[in-house]
User: Which sequence fits this backbone?
């Protein structure tokens, strides 16, 4: 018999159990891993008491991170944003992204987080390309936010080029941002007519 | 008054990891609620003073202790990390192991604190102009 004593209560005997853990990595997908856990027959604690799953979990996380790098870079390439352009905007050494994509080298945790940021908010590349000028960055940010905001609204005509915003909060928000600007015409209390989408 | 010396626990998390055990559901909660994906990440987070505004909450007997003649006490703390208010509970056992029993979001979720943190983050943008 090779019975293990519970390291939690120091009294009970451990029983091996299996569990499945799902690991998710943003932009990398997910993986299900079969893990070996223990359960104490006395205090009923369960867990990986001897760190036997750590290496397995670590390996799967690393695999998903590599997949995330591939997926993010492929997304940019398929949208006609070249890796050379990204490297230039972010002041990365040329061919850094190619090396990451071809797994010649792997990005650090910081590098991967940077990729996730630009994938989540691609307009950050435009911010970087404008040397992080604060005013320009704010304009890019607001412009993109407004574009998403307007696209999320339901327009009465179903046509983005001519529609009516009748929700009070939406009208206030548009008023706040676009007061007097081209593209919107104030047509009454809390009502704005969107006369063009080209301003975005 | 805490039953254990928190600093001893914190030091063990960084310098004596083998003697710190996390029991279920701590791994799942740490991963899903705090993005700490394995034991090492959690322990190093604690060791490196990741638990901000740490405040002692209470000490209670460990309810699953099979040895009623030898009580084991569990210390519980609340902490903050960015906009999240967390809850940590741990104890030390006869075998010289620190057991992390709970690591999750606190039930006393402080909305005004979350708003203050969000304001502070926005403030960074303004200050750095």
Assistant:
């Amino acid at each position: 018999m090779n019975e293990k004593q519970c390291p939690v209560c120091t009294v009970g005997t451990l029983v091996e159990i299996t569990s499945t853990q799902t690991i998710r990595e943003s932009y990398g997908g997910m993986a299900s891993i079969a893990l070996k856990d223990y359960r104490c027959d006395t205090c009923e604690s369960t867990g990986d008491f001897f760190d036997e799953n750590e290496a397995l979990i670590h390996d799967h996380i690393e695999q998903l991170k590599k997949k995330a790098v591939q997926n993010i870079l492929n997304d940019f390439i398929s949208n006609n944003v070249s890796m050379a352009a990204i490297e230039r905007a972010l002041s990365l050494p040329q061919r850094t992204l190619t090396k990451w994509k071809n797994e010649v080298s792997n990005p650090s945790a910081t590098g991967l987080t940077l990729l996730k940021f630009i994938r989540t908010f691609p307009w950050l590349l435009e911010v970087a390309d404008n040397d992080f000028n604060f005013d320009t960055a704010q304009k890019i940010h607001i412009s993109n936010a407004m574009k998403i905001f307007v696209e999320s609204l339901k327009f009465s005509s179903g046509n983005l080029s001519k529609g009516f915003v009748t929700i009070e909060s939406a009208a206030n928000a548009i008023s706040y941002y676009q007061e007097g600007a081209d593209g919107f015409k104030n047509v009454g209390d809390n009502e704005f007519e969107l006369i063009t989408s080209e301003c975005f | 008054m805490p039953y254990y010396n928190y600093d001893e626990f914190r030091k063990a998390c960084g310098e004596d990891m083998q003697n710190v055990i996390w029991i279920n559901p701590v791994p799942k909660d740490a991963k899903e609620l705090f993005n700490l994906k394995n034991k090492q990440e959690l322990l190093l987070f604690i060791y490196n003073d990741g638990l901000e505004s740490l405040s002692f909450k209470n000490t209670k007997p460990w309810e699953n202790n099979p040895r009623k003649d030898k009580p084991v006490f569990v210390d519980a703390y609340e902490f903050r990390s960015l906009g999240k208010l967390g809850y940590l509970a741990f104890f030390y056992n006869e075998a010289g192991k620190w057991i992390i029993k709970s690591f999750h979001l606190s039930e006393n979720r402080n909305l005004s604190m979350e708003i203050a943190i969000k304001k502070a983050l926005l403030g960074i943008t303004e200050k750095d102009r």
Chain B touches chain A through 23 residues (CB under 8 Å). Residues 52 and 81 of chain B are 6 Å apart (CA to CA).
